[in-house]
Fold this protein.
Amino acid sequence: METYFDSRLDLMSRRLAKRRENLQFRRAFGGVLRRGPSSMSTEALSEQFEREVARLQLKVKSRMTSLAQAWRSSRVVRTREKVSFLFGVMSILLSALLFGLAPKWVHVAYTVQAAYLLPMRIYSFKKRRWHYFLFDLCYYVNIMNFIFIWLLPSSQALFIACYCLSHGSVASAIVTWRLGMVFHDAEKVTSMFIHIYPPFVFSTIRHFYPNASERFPALRDLPHLKPYDALMYSTVMYLVWQVCYWKFVWVNRRTKIQSGERTTSLTFFLNNKRGWVGKLLVATPPERRAVYYMLGQFVYSIVTEIIPVFALYDSIYWSATYLLVCFSVSVWNGAGFYIEVFGRKFERELEALRKELAEANQRSSPQASPALTADDTDTSTPVSPILEPTTDSPSPPMLPTLGAPMPPVPILENTFNTKATMQPIEVRS
C-alpha cells in the first residue's frame, strides 16, 4: 500500500517538473513551438505560462491531498494487518516450541488462542451478517473438543468422536474450502486455527503427550480404535449437529436465507460456481438442494473419517505425515493468495493509474494552450525504477533536430532584417 501511494506521488511530482520545464522552454523561445501561424505577444505568452503553471499546481496539489488522506485513513488497516501477521506467525512458533518442549501445554495454548479468536470471529461475522456460518460443523467440533478437554476427559465415546471428526471433516476442509496461511488477514488466520489446531491437539494427545492416560482417562483402554465403534460414535455426534442445524437454520430461518438477508455455507457454494461443489448444487432442483447438500455432507464426513480410523490412530508416522500434508496445502493456498491475488490487484491498479494519467495529459496538454503540440505529451515515464527496468535508449530531444526546417518567427525575422547591415565584430587575440 505504501509503495502504491509513493509511486503515484513520485510520478505526479516528476510530471509537474517536466511540464514546468516544457513551458519555460516555450516561453524562452518566444513561441517557436506554436501550433498555428497566429502570433502572440510576449506578455500574452507570459500570462498563459503563469495560468498553465497555476492550473497544474492546483491539480497536483488536490490529487496529493486526496492521496495523503487515503494514506492516513489506511494506517489503522495496516496496523491491524501487522498485528494479525504477528499473531499468526507467533502462534506457529509457539505451537512448535510447545510441541517439542512441553506437549502437556498444547491443549492449553489451543484454549487460550480460541478464547481470543472465537469471540472476535463472532463479533466480525455478526457485524457482516455472516453469523449463520457459526453453526457449521467445524465450530461445533471445536466446542465439543473443549468439553472433552476440560469437562469430560474420561468420556471414551466423546474422545473417539472428537478425534475422528477433527482429523476428518475439520482437517479436510482446508482442501475443500481452500484455506490458506494468509497471516495479514485476521479472518483467514482464525479459519486456519479452527481447522488445523484440533487435529494437531488430538494427535499430540494420542501420540506425544507423556502419560496421557493420567490427564485424559479416556485413553486408558484405547490402544486401538474399533472401526465400528469409531464410526458409530462420530456419526451420532454428527447427526446431533445436523438435526439441530436443520431445525434452527433451514426451518426457523428459511425466509431470511431465501431472501438473501443471511448467508450460509450452502448459499456460498451456490454463488461460487467455479468450484465442483457449486456446479453440482446448481445442477440440482432448487427445492432439493438443501437435502442433497446435507446428504453430501454426511457422506463426506464418513469418507474423511476412514483415514484417521484405519491409519492415523495406530501410527505416529502417518499422523505426522497427515499434519504435514494439511499444513503444506494451507501454505500453498496462502502463497497463491499473496502472489496471484496481490500481484494481479497491484497490476490492475498500476494500469489504471497509467491510463488515468495519460488521459489527464491528453485532456490538459492540447486544449489548455494553442502553444502546445501533440509531441509534448509523454506518457512513457515509468512509475518507479523499482517497478519498471530502465532502458538504455536516449530520451527524446527537447530541441528540434539539426538541419530540420524551422517555422518562421516574425519577431526574430524583423530583428534580423533591421540589423542585416551591421558589420561583424572582429575578435582580436
In short: The chain has 16 helices and no strands. The mean pLDDT is 80.
